[in-house]
Amino acid sequence: MMAAAARMAFASCGRLLAPSSSSSLPALPRTRGSVAASGKHPVSFLAAARSASVLCYCSDATVAPAPQAAAAEGEGEEGEKKAEVPPVEEVAALLDIRVGRVVKAWRHPEADTLYVEEVDVGEEQPRTICSGLVNYLPIDQLQDSNVIVLANLKPRNMRGIKSNGMLMAASDASHENVELLTPPEGSVPGERVWFGTEDGKDRQSEAASPNQVQKKKIWESVQPHLRTSENCTAFLGEHPMRTSAGVVFCKTLQGARVS
């Protein structure tokens, strides 16, 4: 019986490996005496048959990639993803930063640290904006002042008043001193601000929607790159903030963060 099992296993393996149905394996001995005469024990034939059967199916197995190759492939993909990150100046161009003029300002009735302003940003009606400037700026300095407004933020409810934008300001490291960014003399409310050279206005891209600014965290990715220089000019990296009339600045804060 063991010899018969060996013949069946070899025959099965032969059918799997053979290029055509006409090929066949040599016949195995039919008698116990013949097997003994060959010097092989029946168990050896059966073990060999089982080994051959296993080898027949290995050719269809999928070989896993080497760990080093897989790691290298992952590093390549990560490198490509990093290369796809756009320069910060391109991201900043999606922000709708405008020249504004405060036409009215008052204390928020429900929040001690907030002012409420009506700001002309070149639209049919002034925008209502809430600013946490009470501890840093007297209200008479805010009234009728020229300001810089980040205009494509999603509206926020600030203690019962919907704020539709943000006044941009510079602050020192301790946040004890805060100054509003100021457009140069001659800037017109509603003009869109840009970063770079004087002719950069003609290359401005379309601003992102408030939903896109929030979803893609555009402001959060740009803000860390905003600073004032030694002469108090507002910069994005090495690119000055501009209007058609000149560069945007604050009064006295040097090397300050802008938000």
UniProtKB/TrEMBL annotation:
One Pfam family per UniProt: tRNA_bind
Gene Ontology molecular function: tRNA binding
Gene3D superfamilies, sorted: Nucleic acid-binding proteins
InterPro entries per the UniProt record, alphabetical: NA-bd_OB-fold, tRNA-bd_dom, Tyrosine-tRNA_ligase_regulator
Leader sequence segment: none
Keywords in alphabetical order: RNA-binding, tRNA-binding
PROSITE patterns registered for this protein in UniProt: TRBD (PS50886)
Domain TRNA-binding span(s) in chain numbering: 91-194
PANTHER family: NUCLEIC ACID-BINDING, OB-FOLD-LIKE PROTEIN, TRNA-AMINOACYLATION COFACTOR ARC1 FAMILY MEMBER
The protein's name: tRNA-binding domain-containing protein
Native species: Oryza nivara
